[in-house]
Amino acid sequence: MALLPILRFPDPRLKRVAAPVNEISDSVRRLVCDMAETMYEAPGIGLAATQVNVHKRVIVIDTSETKDRLLVLINPVLVDVSGSQVCEEGCLSVPGIYDKVERAERVVARYLDLDGNGQTLDAEGLLAVCIQHEIDHLEGKVFVERLSLLKQTRIKAKLAKQARITA
Ligand code: NI
């Protein structure tokens, strides 16, 4: 296993739309292991392959407090969404920035697990937010792009300043 470097907003590679996984090969299995290790190490509760510059539809999530419920979603699709909730979100690609985003309260997702079996997941609350946030990444969208343009400008300035300090 290996820790993978995480792309930082506004890196243009975060805008790429990920392609479906055609076959759950050894390289996909290795990617999932590395993504899980990277997510736990960060630490974070979700990571999309896009964030580690692999443009395939693969997501890892673990919203459990005990960090022992790894969820791997390959080619996830939302087949139903309902309600709404506003939750403060953060993102490993946008370090130190947190803001409120409105999303569906409940989602039903279909996806393939690591064995290639079709699964259906009915999620609400934080897990539903996380699934929507990560699927956004696969579509080339970072959560700050759901905020006002003024906020986006401020966030970009703040990140640019951080980058100068750490450079
Ligand atoms: Ni994110």
Quick recap:
A hairpin with a 5-residue loop joins strand 6 and strand 7. With 167 residues, this protein is α+β, with helices and mostly antiparallel strands.
Structural category is alpha+beta
The low-confidence parts are none
Number of domains: 1
SS elements, strand count: 7
From the spread of the alpha carbons, the general shape counts as: globular
Examine the coordinates and then state which fold CATH places here, giving the name of the CATH topology. Peptide Deformylase
> Which CATH first-tier class would you pick?
Alpha Beta
Largest sheet: 5 strands, antiparallel
- So, CATH architecture? Alpha-Beta Complex
CATH superfamily: Peptide deformylase
The percent of residues in helical segments reads 25-40%
How many H/I helices?
Answer: 3
Describe this structure in words.
The protein is α+β, with helices and mostly antiparallel strands. The protein has one domain (12-166): Alpha-Beta Complex (Peptide Deformylase), CATH 3.90.45. Helices cover 29% and strands 26% of the residues. The protein has helices at residues 26-41, 125-138, 149-166, and strands spanning 46-48, 58-61, 71-82, 85-89, 99-103, 106-112, 118-124. It starts with 25 loop residues before the first helix and ends with a helix. The protein binds nickel (II) ion.
